[in-house]
Amino acid sequence: MPVFIHCADLHLSAANTPGRIYGLAVLDEVMSLARDENASAVLFCGDLFDSFGDIENAGLRKEFRDRIATLPENCNVIFIAGNHEAHGGNGRSIKDYDLGRDVRVVEQSREHPFQLVVIEGVEVLCIPHQVSCDGYGDWAVPSRQTPVRIALAHGLVAGMDIYTGPAEDEGEKAGVLDPDLFNRFEIAYAALGHIHGRKEQKTGGTCLCYPGSARVFRKGETGQHGVCVLRIDNGVKHEFRPLKSAGEFRIHDLALQLDGGCDDLEGISGKWRPEDWICLRLSGVVDDENRVGELERRIREKYECGSLVRRLDVDRSEVQPLAGISSHPLAKEFLAEWKRRHDMEHGADEELWMRARQIGLKELVGLIQQSGGCG
Amino acid sequence: MIRSLSLKNYGKFPDRRFEFDQITVFCGPNEAGKTTIFDALRQALCSIDGRRDRKKSSMLHERYGEDRSAEIETDGERPGLISIDEFDGFFAIRGGDVRYDISDDAGWMQKVKSRLFSGGIDHARLIKILNDLAGDNLTLRHNREIKELEEELRVLTERLNKDKNERRDILGREQALHDLKKEIDLRREELSKAQIKSEELKMRCAAQDEARQRRRLEEASLLIAEAEKMEKEIEESVDFADEQSLVEFDCCKEDEDRLAGQVARMEGQREELLEKAEKIDAEKRDACRQAAEARQVVGTAGRILGDMALFMERSSRPEGIRRDMGLLIAGATMIILGATLAVALPGMMSKGVAAVACAALGVACFVFSRKDKRTFRSNGEADDVARFRDDWINSVPGAAPVVETMGGLQEFILGRKIEAQKAAGLPAAIEEREREDRARIKDLETEIRRARESCIKAKEKKESWLVRHKVKSRDDFVRQAAVRRQLIEQRKSNAEKTGRLCVEMQVSGIRQLQFEVRRRLADFDQRDVARAPMPEPDVRKLRHDAGAAEDHVKTIQSAINQLQLKHEGDRKLMIGSLGGIPGRILDDERRMAGINRELERRRLDKRAAALAATLFGGVEENAGKALKDLGRTMAVELEIALGHGRKVEIGRLAEKDVRVEDASGKERKLDLLSGGTRDCFVLAARIALAKKAGWENGVLVFDEPFHSLDDDRRRGVLTMLARCRSETHWQMVFFTKDQELAGAIKAAFSGIGVKLNPLDPTARG
Predict the structure, then answer these.
(1) Closest by alpha carbon to B606, among B155, B149, B123, B153?
(2) Inter-chain residue contact B85 with A330, CB threshold 8 Å
(3) With DSSP H G I counted as helix, E B as strand and the rest as coil, what are the percentages for chain A, rounded to 5?
């Protein structure tokens, strides 16, 4: 039974040494998984590198080649270009660079919008990133000759309710894939890349699966990161495998007390791991902003400098300073009432409670400021 | 507890230390520094934030400068740092704070409530703001934006549904197109197979054509070889060119045959004659024997007939005349003939002669036809017949006559006699014939001998001709001549064929033709073209199949063309297929997801606002309870301050609900009482507020708060303060210019330490 590793959006980069080390560590774990599973193929579904410039970096390429070389001889490696690798400088293409032992690179080409290969009796339809796939109806994809055909693609599949966040990805916009493309070409499993959040959906006879980025790439990418292990028999069974080295992006909303203190950090930091990227969103109204700065400094000293986490961001944009607020009776009473009622709810709908706290304080602050400040 | 307050560069005190006790009184006239000490104490007790307390901080800076300090010394626990607002609001009771102004429309109690529980914020207004945020009032920004987002979502949903429907339609048409394409592909496969089959059949036909061509070439080659051979044979058969010489042979042969025939015929005749002679001899012997018998019979018959004639002569009588009918008829005929000739013949002479002649003849016939008729009559004819018959039977062997009359018997015997007479004459006739035959035989033998000789000569002549012409026989000559003729005919035919071949192969002359044929045959050999074509029926079938296959190919091609036309037509109708629809769907979905998230956030905000309003409502409720407690506390404090057992009732902590027994014991509303009583109420309220606010190890500071009170009120208030002190253990600091008050304070708090600090307005340091 062939086993394939479906990996996407690793975004290896030569810049930023910690990020480079992080990315390569994730790659190491992917290679280890491939060896443990005795995989027949490792499928990189786009954005393996963060940019074309990273491919051109000789050092990074060597690091990549060294890791690929650890795979068994019978393990195929397929790499389809993603939107981050779409542009080559000076007319060069990815194939012009040595990525190691028989790595099959599939790039965008007007004449060949796809490639079809067979690995251990499984047809693999490779669709690299392209600006538009709306001509797929004219693609001369032959009828399926093997029991199972899978597809590799990089782009956005319409109809999957994908929300990529308020900001569009930088660089080239990803191509749109109609799910009919996969039904038409008899695809049992579509190994997709580009979306960094894990998502899957069945349409017709095709399972469309984004395993999500193999590593945490940008802020907001919460949840586990990993790869999918495909076991192909008469059909395709897939299983998500989180990668320990990828860590997680964890975002915590911390409500500050009026005096700038915060007392619930210890409870949540117990789950943090050294590979994690932590974002702390401080919110609230405080007497003295400097105290918040001091708090941040202490947190960074403990967690970031102590290597308890990989990266720590502190967002203070929701912190509003207002002198005297800590002695404002209504603010104190409100927070006391909030805590009393919040503790009674035993943590249900935490987001609502945090937001109620923020709004209540915000409106209170607004009125205080309208009335000329505290006192 | 505060033990001392050290001032440096603080107003008029460059460096001064004041001692404190449980109760501390600063007493001095105006400009003595009471306010300075008050400000310094406040500075020392409060945490002053540059931003929060900007106004008060800048006031202090302006008044006393930057380079000032106020430090307190304590023993035991230091009072907790509080904000200036708290200090001013709860723990610093100044003269102006105590004044109760009934003309204040805003409501003193409301301000107290606001200050105590809302920090100056209109609590109800805050809750209203939050409820509005939580409600669906469109005029509010929050809700307006939600409505706008919902509307945008609705439009997007409509557009998305439209795009999805359009996509579904297109895919449906795409599917139909796809199916059509599949059909076209299937037909193309079929066409390919048909073309392969057609090509194969064509190749086989071509192979057969080539085989036939090869056969034709081989035949041509044979033809050429044959022509050459033929030429040679014709050349060699030149002896048989002259067919006229056959005439000579034929003549010889004819002669020979004729003569041989004659010989044979004559020999045959001779043989016949010999046989005949033998037969005649035998016949003659028989005839002689028969003649002898016949002579006997003749004799017997004659005898008997004679006897019978005699008998009959004797027995017959004449009975008339009979006519010979024959003669009669002849005579009649001659007469008729004469008459006819007389009419028919021309000329009177001829007519007359003919008539006379015929008439004479007729008459003669008539005359001679007369004969006497005699009739035999016998009385015993039968016995007579029997007698004569027996005689005959006994004399002549043979069949007995079966007669019953004499005439009959006569006729029988006469007949036998005639026959016997003939028989008797036979030997002579036979001998005559024999003699003739013998003569003929002899002649024949002579002729045979001559004919043989002639025949031999003819044969020799013929043989000589054969030898001369080198043939074994005429047929041989004829055959060879025929062969030659045939060869010539064939040569002619070959020449025609080779001529056609030359034209066909565009050569001139048979040599070139031969060369060309050999060349082509060599080419066929090289290409291993089959030597033997299939039988013609099979070839016809093959051509038929090839034709059918080609027709089938054309049919399929036509069908494919039609399908392709339909495919193109349908495709054009689709106006670019899915085109940008998936992109639009994706964009709309993403936008919708964004809007939904935004809506979720806004709705969360609404819910959160409602929750916050609820929380503030809870705070208000708590405040209400606290105010109730405060009211109770205030009532108690006021009762103490008023003394004399006067009752104070506070229903709801609002001015209008405060009822106090006046001096006469009548319950009256606060705003209807004296100013002093109202001021007492305010003091009591302030004390109650301070207790409510709470301050660990706190300090109550009074700055001329009793100036509006008479002695009685003052005593009541001091009793209230003493009670407060015993409950809270707060330090109390009084600032007054009233020496008597200072004394009263000392007296009121005589059980505990009281420090009096007199202040001299003229003193420095």
Answers:
(1) B149
(2) no
(3) 30, 25, 40
Shortest distance, CA B76 to any CA of chain A (angstroms): 24
The shortest C-alpha distance from B59 to chain A (Å) reads 14
In angstroms, the CA B36 to CA B18 distance is 12
Tell me what percent of the residues of chain B surpass a pLDDT of 70: 89
Long-range contacts, stretch B196-203, CB < 8 angstroms, 24+ apart: B197/B549, B198/B546, B198/B549, B198/B550, B198/B552, B198/B553, B201/B542, B201/B545, B201/B546, B201/B549, B202/B546, B202/B550
- Please list the alpha-helical segments (H only) found in A242-304: 265-269, 289-299
Q: What does the alpha-carbon distance between residue A143 and residue A124 come to, in Å, rounded to a whole number?
A: 12
C-alpha span between B122 and A343 (Å, rounded): 27
Put simply, the answer to whether A137 touches B177 (Cβ < 8 Å) is yes
Which has the closest alpha carbon to B27: B762, B754, B739? B739
Q: 3-class DSSP state for residue A241?
A: strand
In this structure, whether the domain defined by B2-116+622-758 belongs to CATH 3.40.50.1220 is answered with: no
Fold observed for domain B245-324+369-463? Helix Hairpins (1.10.287)
Cite the DSSP H helix spans in B506-651.
Answer: 510-526, 536-573, 581-642
- Please state, in angstroms and as integers, the Cα–Cα distance from residue B330 to each residue in B323, B344, B356, B367, B610, following that order: 12, 21, 16, 12, 176
Going B44 to B49 to B52 to B55, the CA torsion angle's sign is positive
CB contact under 8 A, B609 and A352: no
How far is Cα A150 from Cα A127, in angstroms, rounded to an integer? 11
Cβ of B611 and A328 within 8 Å? Answer: no
Q: What distance lies between CA B683 and its chain's CA centroid?
A: 101
Q: A214 pLDDT band (50/70/90 cuts)?
A: very high
- Tell me if A277 sits within 8 A of A310, measured CB to CB: yes
pLDDT digit string (tens) for B546-588? 999 999 999 999 999 999 999 888 877 665 567 788 888 888 8
H, E, C per residue of A153-215: EECEECCCCCCCCCCCCCCCCCCEECCHHHHHCCCCEEEEECCCCCEEEEECCEEEEECCCCC
Interface predicted TM-score (ipTM) = 0.85
B512's tokens: 């070139």
H/E element, A277? strand A277-286
At position A170, the amino acid (one-letter code) is E
- Choosing among 3.10.129.10, 3.40.190.10, 3.90.950.20, 3.60.21.10, the CATH entry for A3-246 is 3.60.21.10
Place of tokens 């404002």: A328
Structure tokens, B577: 């297929």
Q: Which two tokens stand for residue B459?
A: 């044969």
Predicted confidence (pLDDT) per residue in A279-296, tens digit = 999 888 888 888 899 889
| Assigned token pair, B707 | 């100036």
Of A164, A353, A364, nearest to B126 by CB-CB distance is A364
Chain A nearest C-alpha distance from B130 (Å): 8
Spatial separation of the C-alpha atoms in residues B358 and B376, rounded to whole Å:
38
Domain with CATH 3.60.21.10 in chain A: 3-246
For chain B, the residue count is 765
User: Per-domain residue ranges for chain B?
Assistant: 2-116+622-758, 143-238+490-569, 245-324+369-463
> Would you say how long chain A is, in residues?
375
Mean pLDDT of chain A: 87
Query: Do the beta carbons of residue A242 and residue A225 sit within 8 Å?
Result: yes
Q: What is the DSSP track for B422-466?
A: HHHHHHHHHHHHHHHHHHHHHHHHHHHHHHHHHHHHHHHHHHHHH
**The pair of three-digit structure tokens given for residue B716, joined into one six-digit string:** 């009541």
Closest residue by Cα to residue B225 from B646, B518, B474, B477: B518
Helix axes B406-469, B381-395, angle to 10 degrees: 40
The Cα B669–Cα A9 span in angstroms is 78
